[in-house]
Design goal:
about 240 residues, mainly alpha, 11 helices, 7259_t:CDS:1
């Protein structure tokens, strides 16, 4: 067996230090968060919002501004907290921003599921489109930082596979954008788009769980636990309205 070089050991120690400040769900907890967001989005798409049974079988409407601001604060707040807490730890910062990708996809989804004016629809589409690409790239960059090791012959393979996945996902995303009304009117197409554009989140959850040796994915410290739970609840509130 090849002896592990001091550089690699140092890198592992640095990664553990970087991941220790992460205040968002990862591991099994993170995958449950990701999957429940997908289920919530699908049910909302077919006019059966999971947490608003009084809205079932009724035309979907975007959240009221007050509810939208509250749910956004509970979703974005823990990400900002993690970035401040992980100051200078770029792996955790990029991964944290990447976790907001489902939020930006919801902005696009809301434009077509709801009947809103052309000007507002165009604004939401552009914001959602740009944010999704930026957050998607941020998530994959964080994932790459976690995997790449100094002087490792597998680095080229890792980069190649990641780039291929990114290119395929972005091509599908762009193709869907070019005929977006047809794409988003098809629930299966939107589910596929969601999975492709949030694939980095699942990958990051698994990497962080391995680095931290914590497959449950609950941060070990109290502040991190509160942040992760708030983020989880915030994502559920994105699909709640009264």
């Amino acid at each position: 067996m090849d002896e592990i070089s001091p550089d690699v050991l140092k890198l592992y120690d640095n990664l553990k230090h970087d991941a220790a400040c992460y205040g968002l769900p990862y591991g099994y907890f993170g995958i449950v968060c990701w999957a429940s967001t997908l289920v919530s989005m699908i049910l909302t798409y077919v006019n059966c919002p999971l947490f608003s049974p009084t809205k079932w079988c009724k035309p979907y409407k975007r959240q009221k501004p007050s509810m939208m601001a509250f749910s956004a604060a509970m979703t974005v707040g823990p990400v900002i907290y993690t970035c401040i807490r992980c100051k200078g730890e770029w792996m955790s910062i990029f991964m944290a921003f990447g976790q907001l990708t489902p939020w930006s996809l919801k902005l696009i989804n809301d434009c077509y599921v709801t009947k809103i004016g052309d000007e507002t629809e165009s604004k939401y589409r552009l914001i959602g489109f740009a944010m999704t690409i930026i957050l998607y790239l941020a998530g994959w960059i964080g994932f790459e930082i976690a995997l790449l090791k100094p002087s490792d012959r597998n680095n080229t393979l890792i980069i190649s596979i990641t780039v291929i996945v990114m290119v395929i996902s972005l091509l599908c995303y762009t193709a869907c954008w070019s005929c977006i009304s047809n794409c988003l009117n098809n629930c299966c197409s939107f589910v596929l788009l969601y999975i492709l554009m949030t694939s980095h989140i699942v990958a990051s959850h698994l990497v962080l769980a391995v680095i931290n040796k914590n497959m449950m994915g609950v941060p070990p410290d109290w502040y991190g636990q509160v942040s992760a739970v708030v983020f989880f609840i915030g994502k559920r509130l994105l699909f709640l309205d009264f």
